[in-house]
Amino acid sequence: MLSRFAGGGVVEAIERLNALHREVVLLVDVEGFAYKDAATILGVPIGTVMSRLHRARQQLQKDLFAYAVESGIVGGGLNSRS
């Protein structure tokens, strides 16, 4: 299912997430479950889902920006993110 979303860079970035963060990204962002439903599936409070998702998205943003710079999709000049 994940491979339908994008090329290797996105899939690899998701696979590099730790298991707790990866499972919440897959449930909420890939499968489209509501936070409440993801919390029920995972057996954790909704706040835990929210915090894991926030941290996972931050890591994905960092990794995917680095991938975009390395791939020449965006420039990595002085105004780039770190």
Give structural notes.
By secondary structure, this protein is mainly alpha-helical. The chain has a single domain (2-70), classed as Orthogonal Bundle (Arc Repressor Mutant, subunit A), CATH 1.10.10.10. Helix content is 66%, strand content 0%. Helix 2 (19-30) packs across helix 4. The protein starts with 7 loop residues before the first helix and ends in a 12-residue tail after the last helix.
Mind describing the biggest β-sheet? none
Strand content: under 5%
Between the first and last Cα atoms, what is the distance in angstroms? 31 Å
Task: Output the number of helix runs.
Answer: 4
The figure for the number of domains is 1
Dominant shape: elongated
Task: Kindly state the number of beta strands.
Answer: 0
According to CATH, the homologous superfamily is: Winged helix-like DNA-binding domain superfamily/Winged helix DNA-binding domain
Uncertain runs:
none
Which CATH C-level class is it?
Mainly Alpha
Q: Structural class given helices, strands, pairing? A: mainly alpha
Kindly report the average pLDDT value. 85
Rg, nearest Å = 14 Å
CATH architecture tag: Orthogonal Bundle
**SSE series:** HHHH
Q: Remind me, CATH topology?
A: Arc Repressor Mutant, subunit A
Q: Which percent range fits the helix content?
A: 55-70%
